[in-house]
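Sharing a chain and its predicted structure for anyone who wants a worked example. Both blocks are below, sequence first, tokens second.
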Amino acid sequence: HGHGHGHGPLASPMHRLASVGRTGRWLVHGLASELTSNLLPGRAAPPPLSPSQGGLAVVTGATGGIGEEVCRGLAERGFEVCCAARDRRRGEALAASIREGGGCAFYVDLDLEERRPAERLARVLRGRRVRLLVNNAGSMGGSVKTTLRVNLCAPASLAVALWPRLGAEGRVVNVGSSSHLRAAGVSLSATDAAIDRGLRAYAQSKLGLMHVSLLLRAASAASGGPAVRDCHPGVVWTPMLRRQLGAPLCRLLEASGASRRLFRTPQQGAATVLWAALSDEGHGGGGGVRAWRSEYFVDCRRDDAAASPESRDLAAARQSWRWLVEAEPELARRAAAERGLARAIAEAEANSRQTG
């Protein structure tokens, strides 16, 4: 289970106190502010339609509530959408529905719990250039192992595998959660089969993915690669959330109308993901280190201050990368093949030694 908690009589109480503080931070700045903003009128609207968009967009978790709306939104804006998911029936139905509406889409069978999903996707795409990768698939409430694999190892692998095909015009959007405010780093075991009851693995996986974004942004800043954004769709009434809350509570929330007032619809959640994918805000403007430390979208706008200080910490990001490489040795080989990426990670290590 978790490690790196220090030694001595004060370590455990201090660690617990810090953990309680981070949970409080998430409750106040995450959950409470999101539910409050959901009650206000004029909720999330997607970016305007623009016929100038285009190219191939890969969306994981395409058959989930938010994923489906992201696929439809991108197709409406001129992208050819690769709907990647493990539910073949729903995935093929989604792609067919987009095509019937005049869009361009195809389904790819992709199970992120399997080993090496990136290699499977690369085979299917056969060397095609990719304009946009949306790492949207997520897992909550399953085992620690599954949560870390689906939310962190797989999206990191996909981003690194597709890196050479994205180029300077490309974008990577990692769909996160305000739950990252609860985490200080990634410390749980990648092979732990226990159920993630306290959603600690979920919080760590979301912070870890933001650390991957940070290192990828450093690589882009150094060698002119794609834009890399993080975004948080808000508290959305999705099948994943409903499974976590349980049927009796969901029935109560739906019967009372609270599910409509307190939670966003998948379409409203997808709006922020689309802004992160399509907005030119903050990209390509230079500005040194501060410009790439964070690109965090929430409530349909860029709001870097809503991300935790830990998510911008290169030393912590480097620790998460070491955890990832241990869990997924293939990542190290792929990153080493990309000179800009390898250099950025090495520089992050050097910087963390200087500042840490």
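Comments welcome. The beta strands are 56-60, 80-85, 104-109, 132-135, 171-175, 227-232, 296-298, 301-302.
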